[in-house]
Amino acid sequence: MPAKGEGQKIPGSSVNLLSRFAEYSFWLGRYVERAENLARLLAVTETLSADSEDRDSWVSLIQTFQDEEAYRETGKSETGLLIARWYLIDRDNPNSVISVLTMARENARALRHLIPTEMWRHINMLHADVANLTARKVTLVRLNEICEQVRLGCQAHFGVVDSTWYRDEAWLFHKLGCEIERADETTRLMDISNYKLMASDNALLPTKSWWNWLLRQASAYQAFRRKHQINAEPADAAAFLLFDSDFPRSVRLSVLQAFSRLDELETDYQSAPGQKLLVARTALSSRLKNRPEPLAGETLHAYLDEVQKDLIAFADAIADRYFDGG
Question: Where do the DUF403 domain residues begin and end (predicted)?
């Protein structure tokens, strides 16, 4: 969502960053991270599909984002190609890659006086690369290639951010948005793969190979093998993506880094979190400490759903505290 544009200073802060610029920074981070993860999920779903007629895999993607009604209103058939195009280049879909990159560019435009020139230039190039895609160019055969280009473009954005942006409040809110979005999207990536596992004939399914493949899609395979070199189980892979403290895309590390940004806002900028945000933070922290068993099937699905709800509550509390004059 775009920032509302309030003009007040962040409540409780000793510096002059306006709440609307904090919100622009936060959503810029979320939108670029979301574009990368949408590209991951599209690539994952295409690979999971046996062929273009594997309707269940593509419908599971729609269900993951709770977009059933929105897609039904388009009148489009539930085929892999049409769903992929809807999530990649359809400007009428607010959850498409082109839509979230458009919103990222608009938030960056509002921050022109705060962000480096290199960062502004790159977000425009990234947006243009996707905007130039046409329906004819987006085929299932080319989908993985296109998604890889989007992912690399988004990762380059974060490289530009980390190498050029001044480490002030705006940068902290950008990182905070990235980390919340990353945690949320990792749970969605896992949920889609777990859905396919549950829907398949378990007697015929090579589960270890399946989870190894998921680790590769999450850019986690090499890191996982450093920790689990032999006799790793699928549950080990799930635990790694959820709870590892050193892997950048794990839910736990993303959340811990988000907590660290809040601590910096309080310590360096005298911007205390407030009661609602403390409660949401405590609930999310407790959720990640209470590991369910087994980490598979319906148990894993239910746990991922609860983590997603806690992340939403955490993000809402941040908005209430810092963007809405809380």
Answer: 17-323
